[in-house]
């Protein structure tokens, strides 16, 4: 069976606390609050696997076999600029823009697809071992998650692995969608929870965690799935976050608890 469906107020502070990585030991990870500063509509049919902003373009990758896609839209207006479907049995996963290439992962197929960021047309493929979950790009390298507590570094042109790091805490976390933030850290959704982890990709240290459980009201949860999708708004301290089949995308800040 396909993965288990990876199961406002402006200015509201949502959540404080989240799960510890290792059973039994006290979790001393610093906490972040999530401050909602705005919302925008999100396609409730989008089984979100990756969210990416490049300039004025918002990219979204969706999953499910036979229903996976990559979409590009104007960040300011939501106007769709391009869209492409991924044929079954491929199950689309994380996406990122690295230079002149948009990379798209697949879940079980061991295939990364290189696309033209403007047209989303396929330009090539690369293979990898294991599962593909999340992907982001920063400082001349790709950072990839595979559903474990490990991050793998890859060449942005060839997709060849160049190293890896494991989390030094929160062992057993299942790192999913990733965002390489402007400050050099990586924000990661910990599937299937509502936890967002902020990670130092150099050491694997978890710098902070946030609980997004209160973002989507219980009255809007019917038919939705896990939190998944995070992208920093360029030149700001704000992020867009959403989830699989969520009707809303939230613009937020992460602030110290």
TrEMBL record:
<keyword id="KW-0732">Signal</keyword>
<dbReference type="Pfam" id="PF05096">
    <property type="entry name" value="Glu_cyclase_2"/>
</dbReference>
<dbReference type="InterPro" id="IPR007788">
    <property type="entry name" value="QCT"/>
</dbReference>
<protein>
    <submittedName>
        <fullName>Glutaminyl-peptide cyclotransferase</fullName>
    </submittedName>
</protein>
<feature type="signal peptide">
    <location>
        <begin position="1"/>
        <end position="25"/>
    </location>
</feature>
<dbReference type="InterPro" id="IPR011044">
    <property type="entry name" value="Quino_amine_DH_bsu"/>
</dbReference>
<dbReference type="InterPro" id="IPR015943">
    <property type="entry name" value="WD40/YVTN_repeat-like_dom_sf"/>
</dbReference>
């Amino acid at each position: 069976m396909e993965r288990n469906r990876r199961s406002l107020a402006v200015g509201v502070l949502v959540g404080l606390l989240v799960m510890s990585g290792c059973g039994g030991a006290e979790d001393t990870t610093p906490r972040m609050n999530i401050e909602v500063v705005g919302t925008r509509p999100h396609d409730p049919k989008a089984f979100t696997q990756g969210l990416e902003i490049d300039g004025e373009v918002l990219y979204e990758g969706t999953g499910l076999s036979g229903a996976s896609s990559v979409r590009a839209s104007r960040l300011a207006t939501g106007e769709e600029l391009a869209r492409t479907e991924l044929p079954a049995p491929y199950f689309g996963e994380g996406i990122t823009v690295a230079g002149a290439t948009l990379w798209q992962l697949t879940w079980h197929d061991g295939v990364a697809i290189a696309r033209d960021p403007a047209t989303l047309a396929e330009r090539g493929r690369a293979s990898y071992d294991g599962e593909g979950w999340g992907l982001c790009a920063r400082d001349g390298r790709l950072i990839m998650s595979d559903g474990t507590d490990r991050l793998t570094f890859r060449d942005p042109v060839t997709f060849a692995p160049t190293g890896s790091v494991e989390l030094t805490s929160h062992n057993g976390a299942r790192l999913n969608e990733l965002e390489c933030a402007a400050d050099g850290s990586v924000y990661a959704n910990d599937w299937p929870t509502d936890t967002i982890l902020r990670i130092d990709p150099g050491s694997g240290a978890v710098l902070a965690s946030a609980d997004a459980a209160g973002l989507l009201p219980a009255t809007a949860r019917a038919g939705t799935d896990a939190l998944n999708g995070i992208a920093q708004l360029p030149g700001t301290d704000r992020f867009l976050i959403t989830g699989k089949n969520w009707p809303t995308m939230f613009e937020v800040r992460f602030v110290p608890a």
